[in-house]
Amino acid sequence: MRRTAAARIRYALLDVDGVCVMGQRAIPQSAAALARLRALVRGHRLITNQSQEPCSSVMQKLQRWHFDVRPGEVFSALSAAKSHVAIRKLRPLCLLTKAAMEEFEDVAMERPNAVVIGTAPAEMHYKRLTEAMRVLMDEDSELIAVNKGRYFKENGEFQLMAGPFVAALEYATGKSARVVGKPSPDFFRAVAHDAAGPDVLPEQVVMIGDDVRDDIQGAMDVGMRAILVKTGKYRPGDEEICTPAPLAVVDCLADAVTYLEESGVVTE
């Protein structure tokens, strides 16, 4: 995608976990901020590296917390994984939660030639990881990581995501995982195309996120602009990690939308 200095922001991507919600509660003012954002840009997507539940469940959860979310507006790493499996005609061994497996109900899994791994605490034990390793010992097999995040925050505590377990399988087998979720460039391009069509310019898209690596750096690496919010997994000093600096660093989603409203960077 080409870049242009004159490009105004027309589309927005915003992370669900850590920007809109935290654990089992909505972040204050975030539902109202989403409504303001909807009126401000031409299109938006709520994105998630969530690999524990399907997009429909994410949408319903947000709706229960009074977010105006409509079908097709949630884009997940889990659905990106299924799309990759279908395109490659793979038969995966899935290390996923029971809820997430709903996305794969129509996928053949006999004689697996791939491993799909997401955040699934009950699956991350010696027996299942060894089973996955054996599948991956075949030269033609593929390791597909729904995400490669390190950790997330829930109920005030940091929890491991899939990344450390993906790294273990990579180390054991010598294979490199194909990451289909954030911060994969393919993920950001796919969600931008989903929101705006294939002709969208990267600078026309802003990513609002709390994860400096997976959200902010990942988006900026494909030419998008980004706003870092100090909710969710943000830690003091995160803004110093990414290059170049994000468009803005603000306290929360509501402040991010205010910045977009007042800065003049959004198209009319």
Characterization of this structure:
- The chain folds into two domains: 11-49 and 182-263, HAD superfamily/HAD-like (Rossmann fold), CATH 3.40.50.1000; 89-179, HAD superfamily/HAD-like (Rossmann fold).
- Helices cover 33% and strands 20% of the residues.
- The chain is built from eight helices and 14 strands.
- The protein has helices spanning 30-40, 55-64, 77-88, 126-136, 163-173, 185-196, 212-221, 253-263; strands spanning 11-15, 21-22, 25-26, 43-48, 74-76, 92-95, 114-117, 142-145, 151-154, 157-160, 178-179, 205-209, 225-229, 248-250.
- The strands form four sheets. A six-stranded parallel β-sheet has the order 5-4-1-12-13-14, with helices on both faces.
- It holds the Pfam family Hydrolase_6.
- This is Haloacid dehalogenase-like hydrolase domain-containing protein 2.
Question: Short description, anyone?
Answer:
With 268 residues, this protein is of the alpha/beta class.
Order of SSEs = EEEHEHEHEEHEEEHEHEHEEH
Count structural domains: 2
CATH class of the largest domain: Alpha Beta
Largest sheet entry: 6 strands, parallel
Total of helices: 8
At CATH level 3, the topology of the largest domain is Rossmann fold
Largest beta sheet: what is the strand line-up? 5-4-1-12-13-14
Strand tally is 14
Helical fraction equals: 25-40%
CATH superfamily of the largest domain: HAD superfamily/HAD-like
Distance N terminus to C terminus? 22 Å
Beta-strand portion reads 15-25%
User: Radius of gyration in whole Å, from Cα?
Assistant: 18 Å
- SS content category: alpha/beta
Pfam family, one: Hydrolase_like
Keywords: Hydrolase, Magnesium, Metal-binding
Organism: Cladocopium goreaui
Protein name: Haloacid dehalogenase-like hydrolase domain-containing protein 2
